Amino acid sequence: MSAELTRLTAAELAEKIHTREVSAVEVAQAHLDRVAAVDGEVHAFLHVATDAALASAAMVDEGLAAGTAPASPLAGVPLALKDVFTTLDMPTTAGSKILEGWRPPYDATVTSRLRSAGITILGKTNMDEFAMGSSTEYSAYGVTRNPWDTSRVPGGSGGGSAAALASFQAPLAIGTDTGGSIRQPAAFTGTVGVKPTYGGVSRYGLIACASSLDQGGPCARTVLDAALLHEVIGGYDPLDSTSIDERVPSVVEAARLGTSGDLSGLRVGVVRELGGEGYQAGVRASYEEALRQLEKLGAELVEVSCPHFEYGLAAYYLILPSEVSSNLARFDAMRYGLRVDKGASAEEVMAATREAGFGPEVKRRIMLGTYALSSGYYDAYYGQAQKVRTLISRDFAAAFGQADVLVSPATPTTAFPIGDKVDDPLAMYLNDLATIPTNLAGTAALSVPSGLADGLPVGLQVMAPALGEAVMYRVAAAYEAARQAEDGGPLINRVPSLPGGVA
Amino acid sequence: MTAPALVDFDEVVERFDPMLGLEVHVELNTNTKMFCGCPTTFGAEPNTQVCPTCLGLPGSLPVVNRTAVESAIRIGLALNCEIAPWGRFARKNYFYPDMPKNFQTSQYDEPIAVNGYLDVLLDDGTTVRVEIERAHMEEDTGKSLHVGGATGRIHGAEYSLLDYNRAGVPLIEIVTKMIPGTRERAPEVARAYVTALRDLLRALGVSDVRMDQGSMRCDVNLSLSPRDSGILGTRSETKNVNSLRSVERAVRYEMTRQAGVLLAGEPVVQETRHFEEAGGSTRAGRRKETAEDYRYFPEPDLVPIAPPAEWVEELRGTLPEPPWERRRRLQAEWSLTDEELRDLVNAGALDLIEATVAAGAPAGEARSWWVAYLAQQANSRGVELAGLEITPAQVARVIALVASGSLNNKLARQVVDGVLAGEGSPDDVVAARGLAVVSDEGALVAAVDEALAAQPDVAEKIRGGKVQAAGAIVGAVMKATKGQADAKRVRELIIERVGA
Amino acid sequence: MSADPVTPGGDTGITRDEVAHLARLSRLAVTDAELDVFAGQLEVILSAVSRVGEVAADDIPPTSHAVPLQNVFRPDELRPGLTQEQALACAPAAEDGRFRVPQILGEEA
């Protein structure tokens, strides 16, 4: 029974809980048992909040027993929260030594929306330190393993959230996407990951990596589940000045509509600059197969050109480190977090603490950003990168004039072996080639499983204009349904069983 | 290395032209901070007016206080500035423990107000136009308390204690253009400008403008050019100038110091200096090993501010009568000479008198209280007039009590003393101290008779027509009644009783 | 914000000394061994990212914010904050209701 529960989708679990076929506590316990069984191998979680999860689930059950309507369509469903959102009752580390043991005195807006929706927060998931990385190897708390092949990375920075989904430790998870940190791990683990429109999900309580690029978003094993979660966490927040004061797009309705399988009348833009050279053969094959499937669903394929996308990576690795260098200045051993008492002055203690508390990738990006913002270099680096950002937005605008959504492979490769790129920063950065333009433009995108290449999952990226999530979900849901029909079931069911797991 | 001797001020002016610039930081009196909903009250228990945002906790975000923007726009308009149609906040990056994020959020190259001026009245009645370069919004820092070492100063301290109540309080920085041609009047112009600015901000109601509490702070930029050369000299920036008098002294001191350096053939160092209240001098701050590079960039957590024209015009409509126009009006209403007006302005008494008049007191009386007795009290306490713990309404009440005959002037001063001592309102003090003119006619007559009986020779003189001799009897009666008698009535009674 | 322009795409040639300077500006007490590694890595990264200079963008306005919002304000109303105890709960050291920090070198505020 317990094992079966962990294989269900969030929508299925919600239905069983709300009709009181199973209790939220049973569901929570089943997932906690699964965590206990397999997470020693996967290491998706940094903190498991057993008591709080069971207490929260019990409250949902009490409400339902008293005849009260569920707080949300996902009330009682368990979730894994990326350890970059503040939580009052759990430590929050952002994967960094410098925040070891920090107990925030406040909940992030996303956290409080999950709580009000009655969602059971199982715990906090592993990530690259301060969300900088594409493999979760840059976590200060050890690497997370890919459930498809535990010698490989799950992607990053949100590797913990994606691995938790793929190993059936949670049906829902929250990630953050600054340059692909939701979509790339989704692609690597055969799950669904959505980067909403910038400003669509509140950043209040999200420990910043790069403020103008960061966006929290839903992760799940199905498009519908992601949509359900999207509607819970999305929407205006007066505590975030960059939050968009508009209604959340009706993504659940769109996902349900998509399942009907008809995309006729929709124009799908195939981005010429993404998916060619530099992409693994298996990934390219999977992508071409996906394009064929979209056509079969009635979509019209249009080739579009986004000539400035090729400069996206360079612009991104100037803008991001610049913002990082400033955002991470606050970790200085004065008010919270680690303090290394080396040296007599505040200045020395700051430098010693930051040296000991930050990992190499964080230090690299801080110094890179400090350099890019320095007087004398600002115009050539940061200033020029911001102009490229404008050009990329214009590329998107032109492409969305010709197509309703754009598609590309989510990543150039499938999951790579642990240790492969950890000492080669540039090789690591290339992972985000296809996902970065969306962050620079503030638009929306998702990754949906598109089969396997050499036994490892591949993701199809679907991109939409700002606040155009509905059509993106519709296309993804239609594609997901067609793909499953062809494969005879969800891709995720083919994930190998783990040593500790019975499944 | 000994510093070159100071040069006599007259000689400085003979040989050099001072170039003066002033940067004034004003804390706004909004209910909440610039970017979060924490209170801004001065003097609260440490770290009780803080939240994740102003403590710079991970994940926290700023949201701009609308009223602070309105105050900034109103200040800009009152300073005759253009209001920028579009602008962003920037981050000024540098590490300092009193700054929770290790960057200050500040308008850098996109200030909300630019290119204005303020006309400043000097003692001799001439007006100097001070050009305003910009006024921009930013946030204040926390406060550090240095423990150990001799003086509580930063140097030699063993450790520091930080209070972030002030962190994030809205600040407006108002920067003048270089003020040329001030010559020997540079110190006076500096003081007059800061005074005029303070009066203007007070009239706008946007700040407490308390230099003693740090809600208004001034930095003095000064350089010297060889007389009539037009060659710009290297400037120093003197911080920590915390009173109007200090502004004047700091300018004077820097002129004499820099002239000494230049005449010794040495270069003036571009540096930050600190004003020393005690000696009226400035001293160099610690030299930085490397030049500061603040790495400004647009604040990504805040969106641009683009004040719509209608909003700006609506705010223009809320501007009060400019202080100089108001002064002209009050001068006419109160029949003041130029000199009297200037004394009132210099004493910072104008608002107080006007408020006292508004509370029902006659202008003459209100003025006399504030410039005489209350000015003495302020002086002896070392605070500004406005810093006295008495409100204009309370002064008006004292004046009313005198007018009704309930108090005489001596008692009135005691009542004021009581109010200043924190004993409550004038009526509270009257009641608690039992201060009221003895109006019991029977008791007064008895006291007069007693005094006359005690000094029969004086009584005889008065009877003989020497009315001025009554003074001795009045004195005795006042003594007997502990000063609580109406002297005029006593005098009348003496004549009456003697002549009877 | 600019002075000496750098040649886009050219040899960025970041030196070990420059990296040491960046580390100081960033308050990172990096070791000598790290300096060597970082200098090499930053060099590679910088030459890659300086590709942005290949784009002709003189007349292109920079984008600082992905979504074109403006005039987002908050009413001047109090919001509950933290208690002194909450504020200091995670402090490495505290005394008399304040954060205790090592002696501060540098300018008096």
From TrEMBL, chain A:
Q: Where is the active site?
A: K82 (charge relay system), S157 (charge relay system), S181 (acyl-ester intermediate)
Which Enzyme Commission numbers does its entry carry? Answer: 6.3.5.7
Annotated signal sequence is none
What keyword terms does UniProt attach to this protein? ATP-binding, Ligase, Nucleotide-binding, Protein biosynthesis
- The segment(s) forming the Amidase domain are 26-470
Q: Subunit comment for this entry? A: Heterotrimer of A, B and C subunits.
Protein name, please? Glutamyl-tRNA(Gln) amidotransferase subunit A
UniProtKB/TrEMBL annotation, chain B:
Q: Which UniProt keywords apply?
A: ATP-binding, Ligase, Nucleotide-binding, Protein biosynthesis
Q: What is this protein called?
A: Aspartyl/glutamyl-tRNA(Asn/Gln) amidotransferase subunit B
The chemistry this enzyme catalyses reads: L-aspartyl-tRNA(Asn) + L-glutamine + ATP + H2O = L-asparaginyl-tRNA(Asn) + L-glutamate + ADP + phosphate + 2 H(+); L-glutamyl-tRNA(Gln) + L-glutamine + ATP + H2O = L-glutaminyl-tRNA(Gln) + L-glutamate + ADP + phosphate + H(+)
What job does the chain carry out? Allows the formation of correctly charged Asn-tRNA(Asn) or Gln-tRNA(Gln) through the transamidation of misacylated Asp-tRNA(Asn) or Glu-tRNA(Gln) in organisms which lack either or both of asparaginyl-tRNA or glutaminyl-tRNA synthetases. The reaction takes place in the presence of glutamine and ATP through an activated phospho-Asp-tRNA(Asn) or phospho-Glu-tRNA(Gln).
In this protein, which residues make up the domain named Asn/Gln amidotransferase?
A: 351-498
Q: Which HAMAP family match?
A: GatB
EC identifiers of the protein: 6.3.5.-
* SMART domains, per the entry: GatB_Yqey
Q: How does it associate, per the subunit comment?
A: Heterotrimer of A, B and C subunits.
The family database entries (InterPro entries) matched by this protein are listed as:
Asn/Gln-tRNA_amidoTrfase_suB/E, Asn/Gln-tRNA_Trfase_suB/E_cat, Asn/Gln_amidotransferase, Asn/Gln_tRNA_amidoTrase-B-like, GatB, GatB_Yqey_C_2, Gln_synth/guanido_kin_cat_dom
Q: Note the NCBIfam families from the entry.
A: gatB, PRK05477.1-2, PRK05477.1-3, PRK05477.1-4
Family assignment? Belongs to the GatB/GatE family. GatB subfamily.
UniProtKB/TrEMBL annotation, chain C:
Question: What Pfam families would the database entry show?
Answer: GatC
Q: Key word Lyase present in the record?
A: no
Xref: Gene3D superfamilies = Glu-tRNAGln amidotransferase C subunit, N-terminal domain (1.10.20.60)
Enzyme Commission numbers on file = 6.3.5.-
| Keywords, ordered alphabetically | ATP-binding, Ligase, Nucleotide-binding, Protein biosynthesis
| Family matches, as InterPro entries | Asp/Glu-ADT_sf_sub_c (IPR036113), GatC (IPR003837)
Q: Would the keyword Ligase be found if you checked this record's keyword annotation? A: yes
Catalytic activity of the protein = L-aspartyl-tRNA(Asn) + L-glutamine + ATP + H2O = L-asparaginyl-tRNA(Asn) + L-glutamate + ADP + phosphate + 2 H(+); L-glutamyl-tRNA(Gln) + L-glutamine + ATP + H2O = L-glutaminyl-tRNA(Gln) + L-glutamate + ADP + phosphate + H(+)
Q: How the protein assembles, per its UniProt entry?
A: Heterotrimer of A, B and C subunits.
Q: What does this protein do?
A: Allows the formation of correctly charged Asn-tRNA(Asn) or Gln-tRNA(Gln) through the transamidation of misacylated Asp-tRNA(Asn) or Glu-tRNA(Gln) in organisms which lack either or both of asparaginyl-tRNA or glutaminyl-tRNA synthetases. The reaction takes place in the presence of glutamine and ATP through an activated phospho-Asp-tRNA(Asn) or phospho-Glu-tRNA(Gln).
Q: Which family does it belong to?
A: Belongs to the GatC family.
Xref: HAMAP family: GatC (MF_00122)
Designated name of the protein: Aspartyl/glutamyl-tRNA(Asn/Gln) amidotransferase subunit C
The coding gene here is gatC
